[in-house]
Design goal:
Layout lengths: L2 E7 L4 H15 L2 E9 L4 H6 L7 H19 L6 E6 L8 H15 L3 E5 L6 H17 L4 E5 L9 H12 L2 E5 L4 H8 L3 H4 L21 E6 L2
Parallel strand pairs: 1-2, 1-4, 2-3, 4-5
Antiparallel strand pairs: 5-7, 6-7
Helix pairs in contact: 1-3, 1-7, 3-7, 4-5
């Protein structure tokens, strides 16, 4: 084994969308990859369609758990390397102390050489909380692996990415990982998130139509923590 990589995903899909190609690439290079899913994603349909039964949030949780296990298996991650912390979707900022303890335990156990986690200005509060939790855990442990932040949806989506790009030129903290060789795997993995791409409830008037194409490029972008 060349080393360990730990990827922190606020919800069941962020690891594949943000880092799927890099995950497959690291596995091919001989690294062990651990995925840590912070929340259970149970409120996906409630937030997108106002649906709280058929399926219920608890059923959505199980659906999304299955999706992420299938997606990461396609990328090459064994099921035993996917860790579910199961904090309730949308409430991570209310449980940061408990989450930090769990994250610190995981980091101590696996002693990763590289860690991937969300960008601090991603729009979702669970993404922002994951960033804070991971960074505090590292500070507490005095560990210094290579740390990479990935972004799913910038809080200032219209101008934010451009601002970050310009600022990163001066900070020199933005890198691109060529994942073209592994893009077919990532595309297959992304198809497993059917709860976000199709109709899974009889109460849905139309299927979800999330556009994942922006995540299916030959390069994945990360911001290094210096």
């Amino acid at each position: 084994m060349k080393g360990r990589v730990v990827v922190f995903a606020p919800h069941p899909d962020d690891e594949t969308l943000g880092c799927g190609g890099t995950i497959a690439k690291k596995l091919a290079e001989g690294y062990e990859v651990i995925i840590v899913v912070m929340t259970d994603g149970r409120f996906l349909l409630l937030k997108s369609s106002g649906i709280d039964d058929e399926p219920s949030p608890e059923q959505v949780k199980e659906i999304r758990r299955g999706e992420v296990l299938r997606a990461t298996k396609i990328l090459g991650v064994p099921e035993e390397n996917v860790i579910f912390l199961d904090f309730v979707d949308g409430t991570l900022d209310e449980h940061e102390e408990a989450a930090e303890e769990k994250v610190a335990e995981i980091l101590e156990k696996y002693a990763p050489s590289e860690v991937y986690f969300p960008f601090e200005r991603d729009a979702h509060p669970d993404h922002q909380a994951t960033n804070r939790i991971v960074r505090r855990a590292f500070k507490k442990l005095a560990m210094k692996p290579m740390m990479y932040r990935y972004t799913i949806m910038h809080k200032a989506a219209r101008f934010g990415p451009l601002t970050e790009f310009l600022a990163s030129i001066f900070r020199r903290d933005r890198i691109y990982v060529d994942v073209s060789e592994f893009l077919p795997l990532k595309k297959e993995a992304v198809k497993e998130f059917k709860s976000e791409l199709t109709t899974i409830s009889p109460k849905q008037s139309k299927p979800n139509t999330k556009d994942f194409r922006k995540f299916l490029k030959n390069r994945e972008t990360f911001y290094i923590v210096k």
